[in-house]
Amino acid sequence: MEKLPDLKQLSNEAKEALIVELWEKIKKLTAALATTDQPKLGPSPKKTSKNSSTPPSKGFKPNIQPSKIEGIKRQRSLGRAGGGRQLHPEPDQTIIAQLKNCPQCGEKVTTAAQKLQSVYEKIELPPIRPIVTRIERYGGQCACCQTEYVAPVPLGMEPGSPFGSSIQSLVTYLRYTHAISYERLSSIFGSVFGLKISVGAIANLLAKVKTSLDDPVSQILQRLRRAKLICSDETSARVKGQNQWEWVFQNQDVCLHVIRPSRASGVINEVLGEHRPDIWVSDLFSAQKNHPAPQWQVCLAHQLRDCQYAIDVGDRIFAPGMKRLLLRAFIFHRRREKMDDTRLKRYRENLQERLTRILNLEPEHKDGIRLRKRYGGLIDNLFLFLEDATIPPTNNQSEQAIRMSVIFRRVTNGFRSEWSRDLESCRSFSCLYWEATGFNCLSIHSTSSLY
Length: 451
Hints:
7 strands, two-stranded antiparallel sheet, disordered C terminus, alpha/beta, 5-stranded mixed β-sheet, about 40% helix
């Protein structure tokens, strides 16, 4: 039957026969749905950074829409004509341009007759050149006791590499914060600083920096092994042409990076040793689930994206309600400073009641069923952050701590040696090292390290 007949022209017997025929077809379609998985009404939606853990860099970037005020003449910003840069309050020198004679007829012009027409600045960098200190060290043999002696040198002027701590720190900063290759570093030092330094000298210099950072890194590791709360994440790394994994363990006080060939939970045990923190914050990766802490806060940012993907693929029963519940928990977290303990407790109980009702739903879509099963086993791990203000609801800080390592990997394509691998974790710590050796860094990280 391709077309519905005119029901007004059908007799009662014909209508009854049509109803029976349609009923039989409905039964067959229902049985087919019960024996097969959810019917595919079309291709599954693409995973993006909004509905999965796919990084934004891999997503499609739409064209930016033209500004609504495009075509309207913009007002000039305050400041000198033609630009908005503020003049320096204390310039190093001032050039006063005045005429003595009229450029047209040559008539003498007095200073009082001239008015200021414009004021602007020209800015240049001072010449940069290395400071070379030559050490002439004398020695000899005592005429009395025949003891051989050598004159001591000032601290930092010992024999060895000719490149001092300021060059070491700058090379480390440029290499591991800006991902500049050895060859380009050599070129930069030659053209900008007038200092000839070979690629091999840069490698030896960085190996020496690695040794000098062992003690502070050991101190940070000891602090981590006393921490009550640890957040963690991991990402891939390339070392000597092989795939390895970079782990980050951090909280508000310390941040420790390690790169190991394994992504298993053994890395956690290696780093923490016998220490058992009270709270662990991470995503649902299997190694992270095998953490040593008695309590575990699941990253809710990951769960929001997973719920959004389930909604995109067609779940209309479980995922929408779960997403609203997670967003509600975030709202309570942002407002908790304005709540007293009684009110916050009532909100926590309300969240648990809502969670129980959502888990009692019976989704039909496979992704909704999968999420319902997941959260049924995570009832005690979703809202720990509302019980303790020091617990974050996500491990976003861990992801942010590891983000520069991902950029470094993409720019350099990995490491050629294991010591270089270990020093890479010093990337953010190098800011502190640079400042400690007499330089001012634009971005100082207070807690970072390598191990």
